[in-house]
Structures are given as structure tokens and as C-alpha cells.
């Protein structure tokens, strides 16, 4: 599925300041919940809010650097690559995201231009 | 002994103290077979670390821990030790010494190391019971006894010794006043500014100061009752400690007709001027007009004297540059060289950050550091001191030098500061341990050659960090540099996680001592290798800071596990469960109705009675949490903290109100305990229970703090656990009143909060430290118990805020609960 998300444009989901640093907010979408993270250095990442292990809500985990620890069984997911850190194996879908003028934009399937 | 071997020479040492025995140790290293050694000591003890008496007084070390050379050591080295028996006469022509008890020993070489005596000014009343000096074990025993049986102490003298005495007595629970002749403290080591800061900080810690105070009289007839100052001020006291200075102990030397001035006059070979067979070292000597009061120069003397005794005639003593530190936990003072500019050619550079309580001054002469005074943050003291001793030209970093090594060297283009870099950059000749004169090269060599891996091993082999301990961080850095990740700080304690080499205890100690107030600061100061930490260390640090600085530290929600951030328990499907508090397991129709309403309104998927005597609502969506709480709040219910590393439940049984066996009202007791303890954060979850009789229906003996009522009072026990490893509680004690139950409980929980490691429940913690330790702190030490209880109550002021009400009412941001919806 990764990379297959066909999009026609960017949708605004809120302001950067709506997301706490080292935290996340959840965005409801047609492909399910998306977790949008803001790292301490203000880099923003968006991934599917489902842990590759047993579906834990990654948005609720502890964020450290560019990684999040899943709240259910402590898998560590790299936000940049979506990969679980060794020894665990798994990958979570990434969603294109960008910040413009303090607004956070997601590229969602089917979002209007 | 083999009769054919030549007779070994006889060495007699007078004074079984730090200087004398260090000389013997150095001698054994150089020429183990040369002498047959006899040591006379006036004190009844083997040689101990006098410096550490301050730590013993403050309760940080025991007397056993400060012994340097045990009696076994003397035996193993073939040394004859005579203790509790001072030498009273020396026959120089006959080369014999005689002790008070009449023991006579002949010598070929004599070493005098009689130390010094406390200055005893001619104050009327000095010598009464309840007065003492601060010099030896006997004095410390007197002070500890007074602290046990009396309340008020006055310390005369605001120098190093007086301050350490005052702080130790304060730590032992006495109310302490300090009288000092001068306007500022430690005026010989600190400038006025630093002395004032020191006084301010100690004042905050509860020591009352009487500066410009000339003591006229110690009042009292059978025992000291106070002191009267020349200006008429009077201070009541049950204990008066005089610590105004020392003078070399030269009585015996004078009687022997050796040349004495202020001290026993010695040459560069530490030989007395009158008799080449007699040497002297330590605080009793005078060398080129100088006398001594710190161990660093004395260790130098010991080396030179030992070399001379071993036949190395060219060894010569030169007094090294000296630096001073104060051993009061959490108060950092450093000074070396000149305290102030001597004339207009000298320059002073100062830096002061009043908010952080940091002050620094450097005195420069011809672009070289000739003095340094530091207060509050002394990490760079060693660096300045190194440059001072080397006479390094500092003109290149003149502009930034006062900001410390990291900034000054970065400004010169060096790499970013790394916690070990400062030590790594030092040359091998740099002295790390000032007390014992151990340089970096010697420590590195010992680590490499002897395969040392722990701080204690380095102490044992090199003596570095074994005296006052202030160089411990540098020694640890050297270990870390040599061993990399293989180095574990406190023996037996594992690092907190892979972000650091430090164990929990080391981190907690540093937070308090270095007054660290935030997670980023802790990570920076303690050299975290992973700049933002991880999901394991961040919650631990957050808790340690919360516990250390109640009311001051601002909780970091992003460092909390989801349950504590959301104030509900996350379930396997990402929904939450909600457990309202039911005080002591009691509920009412009104509460039950509100719960039923919530269950229907929010389509709760399951309602269950928990094992903790309350009701759990399962399957609640994140977005609904604030509304659920609002409805429960409206019926008077608050969070049950079923998710917290904190107080969970207080289980009770019906007790004497209804039960035919009940001896006391266990339910009311439970409710009172829960009202006192709810909301408190802990290293792990904490559960209490109160049973009305020994049938123990509330299962109190597998709880963290269990109370079982009996006819004559309440049996208290601690450290129980259900769960994976079931553990029954250890009995603490029996008390009679409800008020005592509350006090013991609060004190026990506070002790656990302060000393256990994060995620260590009371059961493994009590097992680790031992129930005797817990008893000693909670049962044996009434003052300490009251203080712990008071601290618990103090932090509860800030902790007892219902997190549900706060969020339902918009007091804390509600955003985390809401889902964002993309704009069209
Ligand atoms: C709800 C409840 C079971 C029930 O339906 O009765 C329960 C549920 C959970 N228990 Fe428990 N424990 C519950 C009473 C107990 C008891 C009984 C008691 O308190 O008297 C024990 C044994 C007593 C003890 O703690 O010593 C107990 C020992 C544990 C343990 C093992 C603790 C240990 O030290 O070994 C865990 C695991 C842990 O904490 O790491 C645990 C962990 C959990 C967790 C938090 C598991 C998790 O991480 O999801 C469960 C959360 C449920 C939720 O979302 O609400 N639960 N748990 C009980 C809630 C009590 C309450 O009102 O707050
Ligand atoms: C509380 C306290 C804290 C200190 N803190 C520090 C510090 O932080 N840093 C630092 O560098 N220094 C510190 N010092 C100073 C340090 O302890 C001394 O400099 C050091 O102990 C001096 O060694 P010494 O062998 O000369 O004297 P001592 O250690 O006093 O040894 C002399 C011994 O000789 C014995 N003696 C005397 N006369 C006779 C006799 N006729 N026959 C037999 N025995 C005799 C005495 O009883 C004594 O045991 C502190 C001192 C005290 C008291
Ligand atoms: S423990 Fe005692 S008081 Fe409590 S219910 Fe059982 S029998 Fe009654
Ligand atoms: S569901 Fe994320 S670690 Fe198990």
C-alpha cells in the first residue's frame, strides 16, 4: 500500500501549535485514523495510527527524537521511515505532510484541491 | 626471626593519624623490609579518615566506613600498633620513647606526626559538659549523643569546620545557631560576595547566623545552657561546639628540646633541625614559615618523608598550590589562590547569576590566573586550578574564560562540550584528586593495568576520590573514557536505560545536589547520550523531578505514559476504561445512579466490579472521556487513579461498625488514609488496606501499606504485593491512635517516594533495603518520621487536584482528547 496513496491535493488539518511538541494529534480520514506528530525540533510526521504489532494507537505513545514508543507493548517506530526498530519487524504507512505558514497540510486520498 | 639476618632498623611513629600512617604506607611501597615499625596513637582507634568526620556527623557515613587502616592491616604488615596510649616522654640520647602506660620502645628513626589541637580560647565555661571541639571521633560521639538527647546547638566559628559541624547537627535534627567573629563566613577562603551567598543558602536551610559575634561566655553551671556575646546577645544552647581553628600539637616536641616555632621546624627533607634521626610530618610541622591544615600538602610531605626514610636523600618537599572545597551536600564552594586583586595591576573578572545562585571570580595577574572563587557551580574549578598551578597564559580566552570551560574552549574553536571531554582534554600530569595528589596519568594507568572497572576499585588502588570525594565526577569520567559502555557507576546498579550510563540512584542524587529542575537540564548535566531520552527514562526523570521539587517542577505531560497523560487506562482496542474513586470502598445510591447513567449515555460496553473495591467502565472512546468525567464529577466523584504510578486504592473491610469480630472502625480509618494519600505520585502503584481484625478480610498483608486492627491499636506492615510474585508484608510496628496510623503511613510513603527507583514497587524496594532500615527511619527516628510525614503532606498540597475536574472544566488543555478533522 505504501506509496499507493493517490492524492489530488493538500488538506489543512490545523495549526502546528495545535500539536504539542513531543506529542501527536489524531486525524480521522477515509483510510482510518492518522497520527500527526510534532517532534521537539518541530519536524512534523504523519503515519497511520495503527501499530504494526497489534494495532496500538501510536498517537498516544511517548515521542523521543524522530521516534515514538507504542503505548501497548513498547515497540519503537521510526517516524521518518515508518519502520519498527530492531529486533521488532514491521512497517507503518506514511502519509505526506507539510507545514506552511504554521498550517499543517496532509495529502489525503480524495482530498479536494 | 632468622638470627643471621642483619637487624632491621627500628622506626617509631608518634601519632596514628592521617599524616603518620600515610608516610608509613608510602614507606612500605618503597622499602617494605627496611624497618621494624612501632606506632603509638593517643586515640583508641585504628587510623581513620578525619576528613570524613563531617560526613559521619551528617549521617552520610558510619564510623566503620571511615577506617583507613584496619587493625588487620597493621598485623599483615608486621606493624606493632599501640592505641589509646600517648607517648609522654622521649629520651633522645638513649633513643627511646615511653608511653603513658609505661611502654618503652627504642628507635633508630623517629617520626613525629602528632597533628594539631583545636584552638581553645579562654572563654569562661569552655570545658563544661555540653561543650566540645570538632576534631576526633570522641567529639563526634559527644555531638551525636547531644543530638539524640537535646535540641539546641550553638557552633562557634564560621570557617570550614564550624560550617560542617553546624550542617551535620542540623541534619541530625537540632536547631542550630552559628556565631562567627567576622562579618562574612569563611573569610579566609571566600570573598565577601561568595561568603554572603553561602550564608544566604545556609540560612535558607535553617541555620541561624550571628556574625560579628564575639563570644564572651558559655553560660551554665553543671552543663552549658547557652552563650553570651560581647554585644549582649544571648543564645540558648544545650550543646556548644567550638571550631575556631587549630594549632600545631608541639607539646612533646618542645619537651624534647626540638626547635619549635608555631610548629615543629623541619627542613625540605622533613627532618627536624636539631636531630637528623627525627622526622616530622603533618599539621604539627612548620616548613619555611608555613603551617598546614589540609591533607593535600600533607600527602606530599608523606611521600617526601617516606623517600627520605627509605634512603633517598635528595627528595625535597615543596608546598603545592592549594584549593578548598566545603563538604556540605548541595552547597558547592571552590576557592584557590588569591581571593581579591592585590593591587591595581591585578584584574578581577566576575560573573554572577543571582537566580541560579551562581557566582565566580577570577583574579588575573599578567594574563595568568592567580586566584579563583566559585559558588554554586564549581564544575570548572579543577580547570581553573590547573591553569593556576601551571601559570598558563589565558589571554586568548580572556573574554569568555569566566563563562567556564565549555564556552571558553568552544570560542577557541574546540569541539562541542561533551561531559567527559573536559577530563579527556587534560594532560596526564593534571591533578584530579587534590586531597590525595593523584594525577590523571596515574588513574588511567591503574585502570588499564589492574583492569579496574568501578569507582571503589579506583579508590582502593589509587586513593583518588577516597578522601573528600569532590573529584568523584572526574574519576568517573576517566572510568567512562577508559571502559566506554562497560563502565557502571554505582556497583550493582544498572544504568537507567540505554540513553545513559547512570543508574537511578546516581541520577536522583544529582537532581538534588545539583538542584536540577527540568528534564532537558538533567539530560544535559548528566551527559545523556540520547538527547531526548526514551520512553523508559523520561517518565522516570519526570517523576524524580516531581518528587524532588514539589510545587515547583512543572509536570511534563509528554514524558508520561499514555494512561497518566489521558487519566484513563488504555485498552487493547485503543479505547479507555474509567474508574471513579470510591473512598475506602464505600459508595452510595447517588454515585451508583450516576455511574449507571454514564454507562447508558456513553454506551459503555462493560461494567465490572474491580479487585480494588470499585467499579470499572470499559470501552470508552477517547473523545468521550471529558464528558464522562464531567458527569461523574457532577455526582461528586473524582478520578480513582486506576492508571497511576501513584496511590490506587485503599481497601477496607466492614470492621467494628457491623462485623461481630471487628475491633476498630476499619472503614473510617481507610477513608481517612485515602483522603490523605489520594493523588500522590510514586515510583510505582501503591495500594493500602485496612482490616478490622486479624482475620484480615481486606487482605492488608499483601498491600504496600497494610493496617490490621487489634484490640489495643493498629498493627502496621509494609512491602506486601499480590501480582506476579506474591509477597506478604513485613511487620513495621504497632501504634495506638488513628493519628499515628496516618503519620506512619505518610512517612513510609514519603520514604518510598524519595528512595525507591522508578518502577520499583514497595515489595522489591523493602526487600532490597531491608525492613530494618525502614524501621530505623520510620519507627526508630521520631523526628525523621515527623519530617517525612510533613514533606508528604506538603507535596500533597500540589498533588491533590482531581485531574478529571481539571480537564472537564477546561483547566488543562482538552485538545489531546479531540480528533482533528481535515478541512474541505
Ligand atoms: C481492573 C482490575 C482488575 C479487576 O477487574 O478487578 C485490574 C486491572 C489491571 N491491572 Fe491489576 N487490576 C486490578 C486489581 C489488581 C489487584 C488486586 C488489588 O489491588 O487488591 C492486584 C494484586 C495486588 C497488587 O497489586 O499487589 C493487581 C495486580 C496487578 C499487577 C501486578 C503488580 C505486581 O506488582 O506484580 C499488574 C501489572 C503491573 O502493574 O505492572 C496489574 C495491571 C493491571 C492493568 C493496569 C494491566 C494493564 O496494564 O492494562 C489492568 C488495567 C485494567 C484497566 O484498564 O482498568 N495488576 N491488580 C483491578 C483494578 C483495581 C482498582 O480498582 O483500581
Ligand atoms: C572535621 C574535619 C574535617 C576536615 N575536612 C578536611 C577537608 O575537607 N579537606 C582537607 O584537606 N582536610 C580536612 N581536614 C583536615 C585534615 O583532617 C587534617 O589536615 C589531617 O587529619 C592532618 O593529619 P595529621 O596526621 O597531621 O593529624 P591527625 O590526623 O590529627 O593525626 C594526629 C594523631 O596523633 C595523635 N597524637 C597526638 N599526640 C600524640 C602523642 N603524644 N602520642 C601518640 N599519639 C599522639 C592524635 O591523637 C591524632 O590521632 C578536616 C579536619 C577535620 C577535623
Ligand atoms: S477482618 Fe475481621 S472485621 Fe473485617 S470483616 Fe473480617 S472478621 Fe470482620
Ligand atoms: S500494539 Fe504497538 S507494541 Fe503492541
TrEMBL record, chain A:
It comes from the Bacteria. InterPro entries: Rieske-like_NirD, Rieske_2Fe-2S, Rieske_2Fe-2S_sf. One of its GO terms (biological process) is nitrate assimilation. Residues 11-106 form the Rieske domain. GO terms for molecular function: 2 iron, 2 sulfur cluster binding; metal ion binding; nitrite reductase [NAD(P)H] activity. Keywords: 2Fe-2S, Iron, Iron-sulfur, Metal-binding, Nitrate assimilation, Oxidoreductase. Gene3D superfamilies: Rieske [2Fe-2S] iron-sulphur domain (2.102.10.10). Pfam families: Rieske (PF00355). PANTHER family: 3-PHENYLPROPIONATE_CINNAMIC ACID DIOXYGENASE FERREDOXIN SUBUNIT (PTHR21496:SF23), FERREDOXIN-RELATED (PTHR21496). This is Nitrite reductase small subunit NirD. It comes from Roseicella aerolata. The gene is nirD.
Amino acid at each position: 500500500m505504501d506509496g499507493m496513496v493517490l492524492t489530488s491535493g493538500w488538506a489543512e488539518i490545523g495549526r502546528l501549535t495545535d500539536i504539542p511538541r513531543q506529542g501527536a494529534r489524531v486525524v480521522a480520514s477515509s483510510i482510518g485514523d492518522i497520527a500527526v506528530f510534532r517532534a521537539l525540533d518541530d519536524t512534523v510526521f504523519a503515519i497511520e495510527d495503527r501499530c504494526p504489532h497489534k494495532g496500538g494507537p501510536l498517537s498516544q505513545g511517548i515521542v523521543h527524537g524522530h521516534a515514538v514508543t507504542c503505548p501497548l507493548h513498547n515497540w519503537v517506530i521510526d517516524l521518518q521511515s515508518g519502520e519498527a526498530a530492531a529486533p521488532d519487524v514491521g512497517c507503518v504507512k506514511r502519509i505526506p505532510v507539510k507545514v506552511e505558514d504554521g498550517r499543517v497540510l496532509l495529502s489525503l486520498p480524495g482530498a479536494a484541491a | 626471626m632468622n638470627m643471621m639476618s642483619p637487624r632491621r632498623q627500628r622506626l617509631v611513629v608518634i601519632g596514628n593519624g592521617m599524616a603518620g600512617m600515610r608516610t608509613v604506607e608510602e614507606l612500605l611501597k618503597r622499602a617494605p623490609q627496611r624497618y621494624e615499625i612501632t606506632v603509638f596513637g593517643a586515640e583508641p582507634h585504628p587510623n581513620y579518615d578525619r576528613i570524613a568526620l563531617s560526613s559521619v556527623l551528617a549521617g552520610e557515613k558510619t564510623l566503620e566506613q571511615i577506617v583507613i587502616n584496619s587493625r588487620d592491616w597493621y598485623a599483615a604488615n608486621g606493624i606493632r600498633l599501640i592505641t589509646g596510649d600517648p607517648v609522654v616522654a622521649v629520651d633522645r640520647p638513649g633513643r627511646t620513647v615511653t608511653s603513658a602506660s609505661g611502654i618503652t620502645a627504642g628507635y633508630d628513626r623517629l617520626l613525629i606526626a602528632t597533628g594539631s589541637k583545636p584552638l581553645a580560647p579562654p572563654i569562661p565555661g569552655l570545658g563544661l559538659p555540653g561543650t566540645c571541639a570538632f576534631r576526633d571521633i570522641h567529639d563526634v560521639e559527644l555531638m551525636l549523643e547531644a543530638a539524640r538527647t537535646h535540641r539546641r546547638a550553638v557552633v562557634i566559628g564560621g570557617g570550614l569546620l564550624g560550617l560542617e559541624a553546624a550542617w551535620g547537627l542540623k541534619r541530625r535534627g537540632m536547631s542550630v545557631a552559628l556565631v562567627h567573629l567576622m562579618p562574612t563566613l569563611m573569610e579566609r577562603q571566600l570573598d565577601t560576595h561568595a561568603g554572603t551567598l553561602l550564608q544566604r543558602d545556609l540560612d535558607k536551610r535553617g541555620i541561624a547566623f550571628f556574625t560579628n559575634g564575639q563570644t564572651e561566655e558559655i553560660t551554665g553551671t553543671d552543663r552549658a545552657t547557652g552563650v553570651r556575646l560581647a554585644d549582649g546577645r544571648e543564645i540558648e544552647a544545650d550543646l556548644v561546639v567550638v571550631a575556631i581553628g587549630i594549632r600545631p600539637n608541639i607539646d612533646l616536641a618542645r619537651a624534647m628540646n626540638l626547635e619549635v616555632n608555631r610548629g615543629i621546624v623541619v627542613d625540605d627533607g622533613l627532618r627536624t633541625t636539631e636531630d637528623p634521626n627525627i622526622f616530622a610530618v603533618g599539621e604539627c610541622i612548620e616548613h619555611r614559615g608555613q603551617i598546614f591544615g589540609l591533607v593535600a600538602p600533607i600527602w606530599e610531605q608523606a611521600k617526601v618523608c617516606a623517600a627520605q626514610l627509605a634512603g633517598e636523600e635528595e627528595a625535597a618537599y615543596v608546598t603545592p598550590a592549594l584549593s578548598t572545597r566545603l563538604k556540605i551536600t548541595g552547597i558547592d564552594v571552590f576557592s584557590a589562590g588569591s581571593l581579591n586583586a592585590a593591587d591595581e595591576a591585578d584584574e578581577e573578572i566576575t560573573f554572577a547569576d543571582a537566580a541560579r545562585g551562581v557566582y565566580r571570580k577570577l583574579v588575573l595577574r599578567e594574563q595568568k590566573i592567580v586566584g579563583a572563587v566559585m559558588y554554586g557551580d564549581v564544575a570548572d574549578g579543577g580547570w581553573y586550578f590547573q591553569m593556576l598551578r601551571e601559570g598558563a597564559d589565558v589571554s586568548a580566552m580572556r573574554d569568555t574564560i569566566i563563562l567556564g570551560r565549555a564556552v571558553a574552549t568552544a570560542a577557541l574553536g574546540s569541539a562541542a562540550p561533551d561531559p567527559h571531554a573536559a577530563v579527556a582534554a587534560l594532560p596526564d600530569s593534571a591533578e584530579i584528586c587534590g586531597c590525595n595528589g593523584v594525577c590523571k596519568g596515574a588513574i588511567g594507568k591503574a585502570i588499564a593495568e589492574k583492569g579496574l572497572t568501578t569507582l571503589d576499585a579506583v579508590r582502593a588502588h589509587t586513593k583518588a576520590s577516597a578522601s573528600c570525594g569532590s573529584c568523584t565526577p572526574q574519576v568517573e569520567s576517566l572510568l567512562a573514557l577508559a571502559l566506554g559502555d562497560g563502565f557502571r557507576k554505582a556497583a550493582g546498579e544498572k544504568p537507567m536505560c540505554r540513553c545513559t550510563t547512570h543508574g537511578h540512584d546516581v541520577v536522583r542524587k544529582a537532581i538534588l545536589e545539583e538542584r536540577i529542575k527540568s528534564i532537558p537540564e538533567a539530560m544535559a548535566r548528566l551527559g545523556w547520550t540520547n538527547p531526548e531520552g526514551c520512553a523508559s527514562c523520561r517518565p522516570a526523570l519526570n517523576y524524580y523531578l516531581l518528587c524532588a521539587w514539589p510545587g515547583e517542577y512543572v509536570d511534563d505531560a509528554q514524558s508520561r505514559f499514555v494512561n497518566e497523560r489521558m487519566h484513563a487506562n488504555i485498552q487493547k482496542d485503543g479505547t479507555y476504561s474509567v474508574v471513579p474513586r470510591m473512598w475506602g470502598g464505600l459508595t452510595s445510591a447517588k454515585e451508583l445512579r450516576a455511574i449507571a447513567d454514564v454507562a447508558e449515555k456513553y454506551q459503555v460496553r462493560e461494567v465490572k466490579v474491580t479487585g480494588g473495591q470499585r467499579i470499572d467502565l470499559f470501552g470508552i472512546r477517547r473523545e468521550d472521556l471529558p464528558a464522562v468525567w464531567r458527569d461523574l464529577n457532577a455526582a461528586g466523584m473524582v478520578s480513582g487513579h486506576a492508571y497511576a504510578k501513584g496511590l490506587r486504592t485503599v481497601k477496607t473491610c466492614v470492621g467494628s461498625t457491623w462485623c461481630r469480630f471487628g475491633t476498630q472502625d476499619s472503614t473510617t480509618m481507610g477513608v481517612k488514609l485515602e483522603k490523605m494519600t489520594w493523588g500522590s505520585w510514586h515510583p510505582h502503584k501503591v495500594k493500602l488496606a485496612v482490616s478490622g481484625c486479624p482475620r484480615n478480610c481486606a487482605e492488608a498483608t499483601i498491600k504496600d501499606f497494610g493496617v490490621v486492627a487489634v484490640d489495643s491499636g493498629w498493627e502496621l506492615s509494609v512491602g506486601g504485593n499480590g501480582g506476579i510474585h506474591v509477597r506478604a508484608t513485613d511487620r513495621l510496628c504497632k501504634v495506638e491512635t488513628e493519628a499515628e496510623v496516618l503519620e506512619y503511613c505518610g512517612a513510609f510513603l514519603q520514604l518510598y517516594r524519595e528512595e525507591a527507583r522508578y518502577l520499583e514497587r514497595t515489595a522489591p524496594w523493602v526487600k532490597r533495603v531491608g525492613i530494618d532500615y525502614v524501621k530505623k527511619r520510620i519507627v526508630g527516628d521520631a523526628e525523621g518520621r515527623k519530617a517525612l510525614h510533613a514533606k508528604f503532606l506538603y507535596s500533597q498540597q500540589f498533588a491533590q487536584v482531581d485531574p478529571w475536574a481539571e480537564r472537564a472544566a477546561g483547566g488543562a488543555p482538552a485538545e489531546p482528547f479531540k480528533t482533528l478533522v481535515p478541512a474541505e
